[in-house]
Design goal:
The structure is a homotetramer. Chain A is an alpha+beta fold. The first copy, chain A, has one domain: Thiol Ester Dehydrase, Chain A (Roll). Chain A contains three helices and six strands, in the order ααββαββββ. In chain A, β1 and β2 form a beta hairpin. β3 of chain A pairs antiparallel with β3 of chain B.
């Protein structure tokens, strides 16, 4: 698969995901095994202390895991599980998520994703996730 | 803390969380150590296959963990980490999350949450999560 | 499968696991979907502070997850992943692990396990785990 | 702390851990924030299929997480939680674990560890873990 084909598949899937679109997620780059997403932060993404809600951070991580691993595991693959550790509040002008497949077998890809806060152009690690994308049952 | 006080604190926090409100989450019940939330499903919660997006399911689990553990750990406590396993697609008229603290120490509460799909009134386990709510640093 | 058959399969597998035997793990009960294990604590199980090493607690949790889910997922099934939260030091005369399948699909069983310290006959929650047992690829 | 001091602290702690010694774990290198461990594989580390038991792999990951994060979080710090994904059977002449702190706050360090099988001198990723080392309560 060429980088252009990978990104086209990703953009097509994203366009058909009402939740991702409502959230405001954009694909920065996508290959078979890596992904970068960007979410411009708005007030509607926050919790009661003015930071990005943990659910927003986790959703962005989930999407980055699924895109990177999903292109490798193929159509119909799904996120089977993930875990996320929160390190700093998500704030600033945007959140960026970067993911990569760290290993894979016949039916699973294990993927890591970092979520970073972008504030005044500087990035700080906000959360880090690890999860499994499972090939569709045949 | 009486059940009435617990629920009042939860409703007050929820009311000040733009993301939770935009998502449409409602508190069904809340005590110090347990929580039940409900999210009426709409098209805007879905991914490209018409099911609830994993980020929606994870966000609901995150909120259920944080409410149940947060009342125990006190003001300013935060979700430190969680993991979630997805078992079935989230669909039907609503998602319901039920959580409870399974153990706690001086500075942490370990909490479990089940997310269930409600379809025609019947509940099916959709995902299950386990995470840590950390007391605010003093 | 009768309870007698389930326990016989478990005892046979345990007998052929050098690590489990070297550790000293005993099966208390085993059905398709639930398991109870016991590990009499000795000095060789400890870390530098005299408590059960986290690796011992995690190993016992891993075994309890694998036995409960493995009987459901069948021969050749393996532990795909798990997470564990530590709540209290493992100490006393024994550790006990109790696990149960909380949900399953065609190719995976999601299982929870609690590890308890037994001290003077009283049990205290030491750690809690959640993981996935995957059916063997066909 | 100099690299020599870091390694001396690690060797001293390891020497006082009966479980780690019984298992056969060796420190390859240790700094404040990174760690490499080695475990020469023997028959006593295996499960019923002849591979390293998942508990052995998880124990080695746990130790690598705790050493890397522990030097940063200071004396009395403990592993609060971790998750591990298994990718390939652990086999060959040794297991090697390499860990590094990916982020830290006042009271926690989030650490990743890879466990690799060494077979004929070649390394293959066997498992990958992510966890939290918590500073001792004051």
């Amino acid at each position: 698969m060429t980088p252009e084909e990978a990104e086209a598949i990703g953009q097509d899937i994203l366009a058909r995901q009402p939740f991702s679109n409502a959230l405001g997620v954009e694909i920065v780059s996508l290959t078979v095994g890596t992904c970068a997403l960007r979410l411009p932060l708005e007030e509607r993404h926050t919790q009661h202390l003015g930071m990005a809600h943990g659910g927003v951070v986790a959703s962005l991580a989930d999407m980055a895991l699924a895109f990177a691993g999903g292109l490798l595991m193929g159509e119909g693959s799904v996120t089977q599980e993930f875990k996320i550790n929160f390190l700093r509040p998500g704030k600033g002008e945007a959140l960026v998520a970067r993911s990569e497949v760290v290993g894979s077998g016949r039916n699973q890809a294990v993927v890591r994703a970092d979520v970073l806060s972008v504030e005044g152009g500087a990035e700080k690690l906000c959360a880090t996730a690890q999860g499994t994308i499972m090939r569709a049952a045949r």
